[in-house]
Amino acid sequence: MDQSSRGAWIRWLISWEHGAPNFAMRMFEVEPNGNTPMHSHNWEHEIFIVEGEGLIVCSGRKHRIKEGYAILIPPNVEHSIVNDGDKTLKLLCLIPKVR
Asked: Looking at residue 33, which CATH number applies to its domain?
């Protein structure tokens, strides 16, 4: 993760390097008081909260997230994940292969 990220890690579970032709699945872990960087890209992606709770910031608006939530991030929407909870926030993130 880049400089504006704190206490966040990505593990690639499935990708085109494993033979998946269209999508990749990644596991993010964000420790308490950690965050992913505020960023955007020109593709959609999907997030599923596996464990923990926190906030997702999309286009400047904060939304509470917790275990079991599914989230669609549309293309070109600035977003970040913030763990304001007291245990590690774990989420699956699916992204398309950018051609």
From this structure: 2.60.120.10
Structure token digits, residue 68: 């079991």
CB neighbour burial string for 59-90, b if at least 16 within 10 angstroms, e if fewer: eeeeeebeeeeebebeeeeebbbbbebeeebb
Identify whether the C-beta of residue 60 lies closer than 8 Å to the C-beta of residue 50.
no
Domain of 56, in residue numbers: 6-96
This prediction has a pTM of: 0.90
Is 25:13 a contact under the CB 8 Å cutoff? Answer: yes
Asked if residues 48 and 89 have their Cβ atoms less than 8 Å apart, the reply is no
Which tens digits make up the pLDDT trace of 13-48? Answer: 999 999 999 999 999 999 999 999 999 999 999 999
Phi, psi of 16 (to 5 degrees): -60, -25
In a domain, 67, yes or no: yes
Give the model's pLDDT for residue 84: 97
